[in-house]
Amino acid sequence: MKLQTILNKIDYTTLQGDVQVNIESVAYHSGLIQQDSLFICLEGTKRDGHDYIAQAVMKGAVAIVIQKQVGLEFVPDDMTVIQVDDTRHALPIIASQFYSHPSQAFRLVGVTGTNGKTSVSHLISSILQYTGRKVGTVGTLGNRINNEDIKAYRTTPTTPETVDLQASFAAMRDQSVTDVVMEVSSMGLKNKRVLECQFDVGIFTNLSQDHLDDHGSFEDYKESKLSLFPMCPYSILNIDDPFASEFIGATNGSYETYGIENKEADLNATGIKSDEKGVHFQVNHKEFQNDVYVPIPGEFTVSNSLAAICCCLHLGLDIEDIIEALKHVKGPDGRLQTIHSPEGYTVMVDYAHTPDALEKVLLNLSPIKKGNIFVVFGCGGDRDRGKRAVMGEIASRWSDYVILTTDNPRSEEPASILADVEEGMQAPGDYEIIEDREEAIQRALSMAEPRDIVLIAGRGNENYQEVNGSKRSLNDFDVVERFMNQHTSTIKEG
Ligand SMILES: CC(=O)N[C@H]1[C@@H](OP(=O)(O)OP(=O)(O)OC[C@H]2O[C@@H](n3ccc(=O)[nH]c3=O)[C@H](O)[C@@H]2O)O[C@H](CO)[C@@H](O)[C@@H]1O[C@H](C)C(=O)N[C@@H](C)C(=O)N[C@H](CCC(=O)O)C(=O)O
Ligand SMILES: Nc1ncnc2c1ncn2[C@@H]1O[C@H](COP(=O)(O)OP(=O)(O)OP(=O)(O)O)[C@@H](O)[C@H]1O
Ligand SMILES: N[C@H](CCC[C@H](N)C(=O)O)C(=O)O
Ligand SMILES: [Mg+2]
């Protein structure tokens, strides 16, 4: 595509070169530059893209977009140099134009909130697929069309950087996807990754402490999440959340609410019954009342299902079809997934990595508890330090025995993360620290007796542990399976 066409919708100054130059790809990181790339220089928190201009030249970029005139001594005379006021703001506009605005080609649902984004997205996409729609999903579990990963793309964050996102959308459009459900993270919003997305529906699940490291304050975190809703013509909001009224205030079109405790909700649930395998409830709306069964454990499944039901109704499905589809859903990978040991204890591998999620999951287990609850967990490094002691306190309060271990330490010392978590722990006799996660899981499994539950929280289906910039293979399910294979055979459930 000609650079001039790519720049069609932004204000810019051409410092040198030809805007008729042909561009084969858009790169926001020096590692992604190829022959005939356009390189966009972003100022980051640690690095500055303007420092990579010499690399861009070497790797074959034919044009660069800058926001300040530094590093230009490396630029040859025939390279096109474009200046804009704010490259981070220009990037989504450029990316969307480069891929010819793919999000206009399908219905787009954005799900935000501290917890439950993957779970709600997964429910919506499962229901839509069950009724025959071709569905794209973008989120923590990857970028998929129906259940297949979009192969060409590298691993991206929950909400991919805008160029990767628009590229995924383009693949979805090219394969005639009808509906796309995406997780919209606070950093995705703050870094303008979703700026050019044409949303049809916005969903708010809940808001509690997380990512205070990246945002600096809870207020900034909340403001980022709120910024999704002015972009959505229709919104669905969890009215049970203490911040619901602020999110309602941020909407810019019609909206509906869902809730369990708040009976004012447009969609609410009554008669909730929960067991180890799933949840039963009655869904109530002004136009219908129906019994629902969802084979995913945890009371938050009720709340997540209400959001999904509301969304699927808006996307044109009948309530009967939605309820039928829900009976057949499988839980998302690594979210409260159950493994029964032949000895009679139960292992649950889960992704709770925030105080609210950990507390909810432990409270959800209380009613189905028949023996002791063991928790194996740790906290990620280079992430919100403030949540560590709070999670320690919650784990020791709501379980019988805790084994404190490593999550993804990243650049931090594991022992110092563990010390932060330990500050919140209560009864010293009821926990121990085993830094090596595999050993910690083995220890919990060897202590478990029939009817006990071992909750392994924080990493879900993550396949790698990030230590000091390198990734080593580690998956909590594999550890459990290895342990059980050495002892007996297992029965694994979705
Ligand atoms: C905190 C955060 O969001 N960081 C994002 C941000 O990084 P940054 O501002 O620190 O960038 P930087 O490292 O200082 O680099 C500045 C610029 O130099 C460029 N650069 C840098 C190094 C180099 O060798 N070459 C090069 O060109 C970078 O591409 C960037 O354009 O801008 C980068 C480029 O757009 C992003 O890749 C990076 O996300 C990284 C992958 C990240 O880990 N983000 C996490 C925190 C994240 O976004 N998580 C959310 C939330 C998870 C959830 O709640 O579910 C998510 O959506 O996954
Ligand atoms: N509605 C909910 N409220 C609170 N906790 C929930 C809810 N739904 C799921 N959880 C808990 O939170 C964990 C993470 O859920 P999920 O992966 O859906 O969240 P997420 O918002 O996608 O997280 P991330 O920010 O990492 O992408 C689950 O494993 C479960 O323990
Ligand atoms: N989206 C979250 C995932 C955290 C998962 C946990 N295992 C960790 O590494 O802290 C984040 O990047 O903060
Ligand atoms: Mg997620």
User: Which ligands are bound?
Assistant: ligand UAG, adenosine-5'-triphosphate, 2,6-diaminopimelic acid, magnesium ion
Overall 3D shape: globular
CATH class of the largest domain: Alpha Beta
Give Rg in angstroms.
24 Å
Helix content: 25-40%
Distance between the termini: 45 Å
Mean pLDDT: 95
Q: Helical region count?
A: 16
CATH topology of the largest domain: UDP-N-acetylmuramoyl-L-alanine:D-glutamate ligase
Uncertain segments are: none
Strand order of the largest sheet: 9-8-7-10-6-11-12-13-14-15-16
Structural description of this entry:
Belongs to the MurCDEF family. MurE subfamily. The chain folds into 3 domains: 96 residues, MurE/MurF, N-terminal domain (Udp-n-acetylmuramoylalanyl-d-glutamate--2,6- Diaminopimelate Ligase, Chain: A, domain 1, 3-Layer(aba) Sandwich), CATH 3.40.1390.10; 226 residues, UDP-N-acetylmuramoyl-L-alanine:D-glutamate ligase (3-Layer(aba) Sandwich), CATH 3.40.1190; 157 residues, Mur ligase, C-terminal domain (Protein-Tyrosine Phosphatase, Chain A), CATH 3.90.190.20. 31% of the residues lie in helices and 23% in strands. The protein has an 11-stranded mixed β-sheet with strand order 9-8-7-10-6-11-12-13-14-15-16, sandwiched between helices. It has a 7-stranded mixed β-sheet with strand order 21-20-19-22-18-17-25, sandwiched between helices. It has a 5-stranded mixed β-sheet with strand order 1-5-4-3-2, covered by helices on one side. Helix 12 runs parallel beside helix 13, helix 13 packs across helix 14 and helix 15 packs across helix 16. It is globular, with a radius of gyration of 24 Å. The two termini are 45 Å apart. Bound molecules: ligand UAG, adenosine-5'-triphosphate (ATP), 2,6-diaminopimelic acid and magnesium ion (MG). The site of magnesium ion has 6 residues, from helix 4.
